[in-house]
Design brief:
alpha/beta; Rossmann fold; eight-stranded mixed sheet
């Protein structure tokens, strides 16, 4: 999928050791509509559904239970919706650990570009191995997979690289995917996002899913997000550049404003819309499991 210098080879034991099972969030009892917490100490205790979250670029593994703030909010929305639906499902959560390399917008140096590509490719390989490992240990467990930014790229990359896993994926929840598949339902504030930043630079990066999985996959991408709606941002930057050729000072300030606004959009996804994405995933899980 991606041309990178290094190839990461991991065993199932490596995956288990390096990726952290956080806890089985809840056992939902439909007769009372209440939540009871069931702690899980290792990967051998299976549940009805496994929620796997993949944090974004530069987000620290030590924060937000290892999910990153955005994915953690999606997870909370997923769990809340199950209580609303009075589902009897048991759920456990897994905060997937990988490099999650940070990346600068300016300048996009060769170093951080290579580090980013290696981070994505390594994450895809590790997550693919993790899904296979969990399938072996818990063959009847369904998976809800959520990722933000680079994490969304890793999540959909792992799914695309593992077609044998598609039947196990109850929902795929992608927040600001850099290689956004515009055929998926978008829960953001734009009906149809443009081209993602990654797809602008890596030809063919946009994922293509089989029809059944596509119906269980959701984007959350807001208008002029520099990562998932990069083509729209690019159009506005071209306009700003045209202004700069005649009025350099005004044009330069306009370019800075556009970049700042686009980056701010990327980092400003609100709690309500993130939880709504999680709710959509829960609704899919309930439908799949019915």
């Amino acid at each position: 999928m991606l041309a990178v210098v290094a190839t990461v080879v991991l065993t199932a034991a490596d995956i288990t050791a390096s990726s952290r099972i956080v806890y089985a969030d809840s056992s939902f009892h439909g007769d009372r509509g209440m939540v009871t917490h069931a702690q899980v100490s290792d990967a051998t205790q299976c549940a009805d559904v496994l929620f796997v979250g993949v944090r974004g670029s530069g987000q620290e593994e030590a924060l937000d239970d290892g999910f990153g703030a955005q994915v953690n909010s999606v997870r909370q929305g997923f769990l809340h919706e199950l209580t609303v639906q009075e589902s009897s499902a048991t759920v456990r959560s897994h905060a997937f650990d990988y490099h999650a390399a940070d990346i600068d917008v300016f300048p996009l140096t060769a170093h951080n570009n290579t580090d980013f590509l290696q981070s994505v490719q390594g994450g895809i390989e590790r997550l693919s191995a993790l899904l296979r490992s969990h399938q072996s240990a818990c063959p009847h467990e369904k998976v809800v997979l959520a990722g933000y930014s680079q994490g969304a790229l890793v999540a959909h990359g792992a799914v695309q690289a593992s077609p044998e896993q598609h039947s196990r994926i109850a929902a795929l929840l992608l927040i600001s995917d850099p290689a956004i598949n515009t055929d998926l339902a978008n829960l953001g504030n734009t009906e149809r996002a443009g081209t993602g930043a990654f797809d602008l630079f890596v030809q063919g990066a946009q994922p293509v899913f089989e029809e059944g999985l596509e119906d269980r996959s959701f984007n959350l991408c807001n208008n002029r997000d520099i990562v998932c709606d990069a083509s729209a941002v690019g159009d506005r930057l071209l306009h700003a550049w045209a202004v700069a050729t005649h009025r350099p000072h005004t044009g330069f300030l306009l370019i800075l404003w556009e970049v700042s606004n686009a980056y701010g959009t990327h980092t400003a996804y609100g709690e309500a819309e993130l939880r709504s994405l999680g709710s959509a995933g829960a609704a899919e899980w309930v439908e799949v499991s019915a």
